[in-house]
């Protein structure tokens, strides 16, 4: 039987070189508060979902993929894509695509200061 989960993506991990700088970047761009914690000696900064069953993830110290070689993680934003792109530029990231409209909403691709490919998503 085919497996069709309600949420095919269940967790995401984004490697960054400087955890403190990355936390500041993502908090600024996404307009969220992120918590830093340690689990089993592993330091991370968490993205939080609204509910326990929501999809979330974390930042961790690691080596990002080379440009164009890693996956693109799409993250929810609290406002219009254009406003988020302004925050990306101000926080040291790079905008790499125009705003793209799809049936569920709008998004644009950026690179964080470590070069990770990130999509910023505004629901319809």
Verbal overview:
By secondary structure, the protein is α+β, with helices and mostly antiparallel strands. It has one domain (11-123): 2,3-Dihydroxybiphenyl 1,2-Dioxygenase, domain 1. Helices cover 19% and strands 37% of the residues. It has two helices and nine strands, in the order βαββββαββββ. The protein has helices at residues 19-30, 81-91, and strands at 11-16, 35-39, 42-47, 56-61, 73-76, 94-95, 100-102, 105-111, 117-123. The strands form two sheets. Strands 5, 6, 7, 8 and 9 form a five-stranded mixed sheet that branches. A four-stranded mixed sheet has the order 1-4-3-2, covered by helices on one side. Strand 3 (42-47) and strand 4 form a beta hairpin. Helix 1 (19-30) runs antiparallel to helix 2. The longest helix has 12 residues, at 19-30. It starts with 10 loop residues before the first strand and ends with a strand. The relative contact order is 0.22. The mean pLDDT is 94.
């Amino acid at each position: 039987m085919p497996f069709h989960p309600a949420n095919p993506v269940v967790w995401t991990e984004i490697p960054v070189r400087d955890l403190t700088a990355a936390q500041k970047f993502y908090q600024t761009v996404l307009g969220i508060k992120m918590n830093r914690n340690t689990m089993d000696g592993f330091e991370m900064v968490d993205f939080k979902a609204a509910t326990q069953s929501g999809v979330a993830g974390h930042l961790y110290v690691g080596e990002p993929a080379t440009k164009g070689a890693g996956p693109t993680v799409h993250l929810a934003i609290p406002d219009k894509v254009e406003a988020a792109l302004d925050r990306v530029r101000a926080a040291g990231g790079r905008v790499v695509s125009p705003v793209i409209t799809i049936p569920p909403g709008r998004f644009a691709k950026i690179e964080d200061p470590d070069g990770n490919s990130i999509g910023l998503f505004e629901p319809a």
